[in-house]
Specification:
The complex is a heterodimer of chains A (272) and B (351). With 272 residues, chain A is an alpha/beta fold. Chain A has helices at 44-51, 74-79, 97-101, 119-132, 150-163, 180-195, 207-213, 236-243, 248-262, and strands at 6-15, 18-28, 32-38, 59-64, 67-69, 82-85, 108-109, 116-117, 168-172, 199-204, 216-221, 224-230. Chain A contains nine helices and twelve strands. In chain A, the strands form three sheets. Chain A has a six-stranded mixed sheet, sandwiched between helices. Chain A has a four-stranded antiparallel sheet with strand order 2-1-4-5, with helices on one face. In chain A, a hairpin with a 6-residue loop joins strand 7 and strand 8. Chain A is globular, with a radius of gyration of 21 Å. Chain A starts with 5 loop residues before the first strand and ends in a 10-residue tail after the last helix. In chain A, 44% of the residues are buried. The two termini of chain B are 24 Å apart. In chain B, 54% of the residues are buried. The chains are: A alpha/beta (272), B mainly alpha (351).
């Protein structure tokens, strides 16, 4: 049994007197998708920032491949192979696909001080990397990224992270602003990353999307892990209820049904 | 926008994809718009100014010379704008450079090279201060450089009076310096014209060919992502501010050597001229997009209008009206071109 690629053990994070994360324990293995579910304000972004080296945990420890690690900045986390892809993050609309792909790591040709950005090489590698992820629509590395769809931009960012040696992929709400088709696109990319043996941490509040790719689920409520289960252990409704904070969703449905029974099948009028 | 989307949907239906390809490739280049604008303005003034020798060597050099003094500064200012910043302290940096040159060499009689070192040293410090203030305080660069504009102009006046008791100073330069920085060459071209071309060539390399250009574009496109990608964004910004101040100093040195004198007057018009040249040249005000060739053509367009009006029967004051209208058209065109650039490439999915 190999050690998980990334693991958090009893991590707390507080900003001054305000506790944001309590006793978070998570682990993600290679070739596995961990879905982090939580409503707005549950502490998801703080958790991401802690994982990606922006924040340091107040207490507890983080391990990579079983070895304790501590990141003093995001760059350090990146060097160890932790890549965070935010919504539309890492793509520049008015730059070409090839230039986008290599921002900060440009391939050059020439010698001495006369190094020239190798446009052809950059375009070729970028297009190939993106196509390997199944985005066959991108064939021209000179195309401006602003002309791509949201899903394609997300895919470009993920392909970029994988190309530059990411081992852990943290995806922050990658499907939130996308349409159904685009979201399916991104989910396929997530599956492809998983197939290639990456450890993926997929943050979302859309249960459907999580169910489609997840192997392991953790529900975050008010900074603590409220539930931790594997694929197939819970139904979609149960997860939605958990995210909303317990039985409230079922309660709401029951109260609406009760109202309809006593009012000739009319739903309650919306509150004014 | 509705116009755009309809034209986009009709694109794939068109049989000749190769035409759509070349058209798309063309519209990706903002300098095309700037170039067409320049040609239009040039033809206009060539027609109305033909009788008064607008096309003569003297007529040509009059606008090229003017373009060069603006253009040397406009390209670095364009770089800053691409990176999402602005520097208006150039209006004070130019007279500061002129006075420091004239005071060091004209008043104190120091060797010319020493004067150059002092002048560019001052420019380096001013640019560094601008850059440090912008990166450390996060105050918008317009405000920071507005502050340094007044600070530098006040300091120039104060020091000139303190050291030399006058606000203008004569300067006689040695022969080599004269021909290098401020002399009239063939056709009446000033030395600064050659500096302009050289700087444009070097900065073309930096923005479009070297990896640094990618960094500048990325910095203006999305600062946070650029930082995450490992680009030293603060150092890059500070370097760009230093580059701009040094370019302003070079323009000032050229002017002083040419006219053999310097005054402390702050050059407010230069600030606007530079910004107009950059925007007409197709650089996006919000950053992330722009070309050296575009700024080059934008500067030429501005100079043709300002100098060319004197060769036509029209009233000289109308040049400002033309420039105002031109600026507005340029900004609207930039938006259109950009929308086309992104939608054109997307329309190629049919291929």
């Amino acid at each position: 049994m190999t050690a998980p690629v990334l693991e958090m053990r009893n991590v707390d994070k507080s900003f001054g007197p305000i506790d944001v994360l309590h006793e978070i324990s998570l682990k993600v293995n290679a070739g596995e998708v961990l879905c982090l579910l939580g409503d707005n304000g549950a502490g998801k972004s703080t958790l991401i920032k802690t994982l990606s080296g922006v924040h340091k945990p107040t207490r507890g420890e983080m391990l990579m491949d079983g070895e304790p690690v501590s990141f003093s900045n995001p760059k350090q986390a990146q060097e160890l192979g932790i890549a965070t892809v935010h919504q539309f993050g890492g793509t520049y609309p008015l730059m070409s696909v090839g230039r986008n792909f290599f921002v900060g790591a440009e391939p050059t040709k020439g010698f001495g001080p006369f190094k020239v950005f190798d446009r052809q090489k950059a375009n070729a590698i970028a297009v190939e990397a993106v196509q390997n992820f199944g985005i066959t629509r991108i064939t021209d590395g000179d195309r401006l990224v602003g002309g791509l769809s949201g899903g394609e931009r997300q895919s470009l960012a993920i392909a970029r992270a994988v190309h530059f040696g990411a081992r852990v992929l943290i995806l922050d709400e990658p499907t939130a602003a996308l349409g159904v088709k685009q979201a399916a696109h991104v989910l396929r990319i997530v599956n492809e990353a998983k197939r290639r043996g990456l450890a993926v941490i997929f943050i979302t509040h859309q249960v459907m999307h999580a169910m489609a790719v997840g192997d392991h689920f953790a529900v975050l409520i008010r900074g603590a892990i409220a539930a931790d289960f594997r694929k197939g252990e819970k139904t979609r409704e149960e997860i939605a209820d958990l995210m909303a904070g317990g039985e409230s969703m079922a309660d709401l449905e029951a109260s609406i049904e009760g109202y309809m029974e006593t009012h000739d099948g009319h739903p309650p009028a919306p509150a004014h | 926008m509705t116009m755009e989307s309809t034209s986009q949907t009709s694109q794939p239906a068109r049989p000749s994809t190769s035409q759509a390809f070349s058209l798309g490739a063309l519209f990706r280049r903002p300098e095309v718009g700037a170039f067409m604008g320049m040609v239009l303005v040039f033809v206009f003034f060539a027609y109305f100014g033909y009788d008064r020798n607008f096309l003569s060597p003297f007529g040509t050099s009059s606008w090229v010379n003017m373009a060069s003094t603006i253009g040397i500064i406009a390209i670095p200012v364009g770089f800053l704008m691409i990176a999402g910043e602005l520097d208006i302290s150039i209006g004070a940096m130019v007279p500061a450079a002129k006075m420091s040159m004239a005071v060091a060499c004209g008043y104190y009689g120091l060797p010319f090279v020493v004067g150059l070192l002092i002048t560019f040293g001052i420019a380096f410090v001013v640019g560094w201060i601008n850059g440090m203030l912008v990166t450390r305080t996060k105050v918008p660069s317009l405000i920071v450089t507005l502050a340094t504009l007044f600070a530098v102009s006040g300091l120039t006046l104060f020091l000139s009076l303190l050291l030399t008791d006058t606000t203008s100073q004569a300067l006689t330069s040695p022969g080599w310096a004269k021909s290098l920085f401020g002399d009239y060459h063939f056709w009446g071209f000033q030395s600064s014209v050659f500096w302009w071309i050289a700087i444009a060539a070097v900065l073309y390399y930096v923005l479009h060919l070297s990896p640094w250009g990618n960094w500048i574009l990325a910095l203006g496109g999305d600062k946070e992502s650029a930082r995450n990608a490992g680009i030293p964004i603060d150092r890059l910004k500070i370097s760009l501010f230093i580059l701009t101040a040094m370019a302003a100093a070079l323009s000032g040195v050229c002017e002083t050597v040419l006219s053999n004198s310097a005054t402390t007057t702050t050059n407010f018009a230069l600030i606007f001229n530079c910004i107009i040249a950059v925007v007409v040249g197709g650089v996006l005000l919000t950053g992330g997009f722009g070309t050296v060739a575009g700024v080059f053509f934008g500067t030429a367009t501005l100079a043709i209008v300002q100098q060319g009006i004197g060769y036509t029967p029209f009233d000289r004051n109308l040049s400002s009206l033309i420039i105002g209208v031109m600026l507005l058209i340029a900004v609207l065109m930039n938006d259109t071109f950009r929308n086309m650039a992104t939608s054109m490439s997307a329309s190629k999915k049919g291929k």
